[in-house]
């Protein structure tokens, strides 16, 4: 901090602002380099930003010059806003420094897509909702970021389909989509290939190049999976989970009657799909290796497993479980990358009165073990934020073994089970259709 109130801020991976048509800041309690600024408010006088290096850990040095403004918005909150004209993805952060004395109806730890959906619904119901995100952008696994200089990618999640259409309708999300067609291309060493897409007749013609018998039963195979998804899986997804502690209730009776209607034979075949290797299911239906190899990718993509592992056949359902705009089983690329989805969700949270705080890592969830009630959260900065409801968007391992490590209410066996969760994946994906040039 110099005589002209110049301040240097450094941000990792993502620039705070990439283009600055307008920027307004009020910093009554901002602490930099472990030293607080004067208690008098300051207003931004000038702003410059320089990208220092490239690669996975992009570093951006931001210089902000402040000037004192004694009569400018004297408040204990810090508001920071910026506008940008770049592509529709995370070009900005949500930065409202929260008053620690305020109690919230719900605190959501983590700003991934699940946390943002939860926050949007709660905020829509006029609840006081606070989302605390560790990183400087929201989105979790559904983000668009610059990996190589000048180009932006969907870093983890890269296709949209399993996102519930009921959420899209109820939150009025307008997601720009580009259907994935063709959906697969399998080249062979002898020059032949198998291409599958959304055209039914073309799919059968492609399969018949390798086996007319496979082409004759392919639609029956698809109908089997679609039937399991429509009649068994889909009705369960939007229902409240059944809790053993609640005993027999109306929801349980409804589900029992529904399963009875499905029939014992189909339920047994569905159980087989859940527990057997994908290769066993595919060998039962088909004879050509190119087709079986292509379909096997639906069972193992994103998983550190093989199609010979028991239980891998279940993921074949993901091929038909989703849907976009009433098209069953349709998958699509999102314009602007997957960060567009979470940006739209974050905007809905803000629109309905919710608050999103980035760069706010939570160190623990506070619990009153005696009365078995949650009290709120403690940030890594040491600040405590009160709430009678805390919802974790973090992984089970982080939630139970880190954020709740001080709670005596959790059994050792539960902690061990949470620690055993396997998150390994063999996937590295670069999608040219998810790439946006800045």
Describe what you observe in this structure:
- The chain is α+β, with helices and mostly antiparallel strands.
- The protein has 12 helices and 25 strands.
- It has helices at residues 113-124, 165-170, 200-208, 212-237, 250-262, 264-275, 278-285, 289-300, 318-321, 339-351, 396-403, 412-419; strands spanning 6-12, 22-25, 31-32, 35-36, 42-53, 59-68, 78-83, 95-97, 103-104, 106-109, 129-132, 144-148, 151-154, 177-179, 184-187, 193-196, 323-324, 327-328, 332-334, 355-357, 362-368, 373-379, 384-387, 390-392, 436-437.
- The strands form 9 sheets. A 4-stranded mixed sheet has the order 9-23-22-21, with no helix packed on it. A 4-stranded parallel sheet has the order 20-11-10-24, covered by helices on one side. It has a 3-stranded antiparallel sheet with strand order 1-6-5, with no helix packed on it.
- A hairpin with a 2-residue loop joins strand 3 and strand 4 (35-36).
- Helix 3 packs across helix 4 (212-237) and helix 7 runs antiparallel to helix 8.
- The two termini are 33 Å apart.
Could you name the key traits of this structure?
single chain, 438 residues, alpha+beta, four-stranded parallel β-sheet, 25 strands, globular, disordered N terminus
């Amino acid at each position: 901090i110099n005589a002209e109130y110049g301040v240097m801020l450094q941000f990792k991976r993502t620039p705070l602002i990439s283009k600055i048509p307008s920027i307004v800041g009020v910093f009554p309690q901002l602490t930099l380099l472990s030293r607080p600024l004067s208690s008098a408010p300051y207003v931004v006088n000038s702003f410059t930003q320089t990208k220092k290096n490239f690669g996975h850990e992009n570093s951006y040095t931001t210089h902000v010059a402040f000037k004192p403004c004694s009569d400018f918005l004297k408040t204990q909150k810090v508001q920071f806003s910026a506008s940008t004209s770049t592509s529709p993805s995370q070009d900005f952060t949500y930065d409202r420094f929260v008053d620690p004395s305020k109690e919230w109806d719900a605190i959501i730890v983590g700003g991934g897509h699940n946390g943002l959906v939860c926050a949007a619904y709660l905020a829509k119901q006029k609840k006081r909702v606070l989302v605390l995100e560790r990183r400087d952008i929201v989105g979790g696994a559904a983000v668009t970021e610059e990996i190589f200089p000048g180009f932006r990618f969907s870093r983890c999640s890269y296709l949209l389909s399993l996102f519930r259409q009921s959420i899209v309708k109820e939150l009025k999300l307008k997601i720009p989509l580009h259907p994935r067609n063709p959906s697969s291309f399998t080249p062979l060493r002898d020059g032949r290939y198998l291409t599958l897409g959304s055209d039914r007749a073309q799919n059968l013609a492609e399969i018949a190049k390798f086996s007319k018998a496979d082409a004759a039963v392919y639609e029956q195979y698809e109908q089997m999976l679609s039937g399991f998804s429509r009649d068994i899986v889909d009705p369960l997804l939007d229902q409240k989970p059944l809790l053993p502690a609640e005993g027999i209730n109306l929801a349980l009776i409804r589900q029992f009657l529904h399963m009875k209607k499905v029939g014992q034979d189909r339920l047994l075949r569905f159980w087989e799909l859940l527990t057997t290797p994908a290769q066993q299911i595919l060998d039962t239906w088909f004879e050509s290796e190119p087709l079986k190899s292509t379909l096997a990718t639906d069972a193992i993509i994103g998983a550190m497993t093989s199609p010979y592992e028991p239980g891998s056949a279940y993921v074949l359902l993901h091929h038909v479980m989703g849907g976009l705009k009433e098209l069953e089983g349709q998958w699509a690329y999102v314009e602007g990358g997957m960060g567009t989805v979470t940006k739209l969700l974050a905007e809905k949270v803000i629109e309905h009165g919710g608050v999103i705080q980035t760069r706010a890592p939570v160190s623990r969830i506070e619990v009153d073990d005696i009365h078995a009630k949650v009290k709120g959260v403690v940030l890594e900065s040491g600040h405590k934020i009160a709430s009678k409801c805390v919802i974790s968007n973090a992984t089970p391992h982080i939630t139970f073994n880190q954020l709740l490590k001080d709670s005596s209410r959790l059994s050792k066996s539960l902690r061990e089970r949470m620690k055993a969760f396997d998150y390994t994946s063999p996937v590295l994906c670069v999608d040219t259709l998810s790439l946006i040039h800045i």
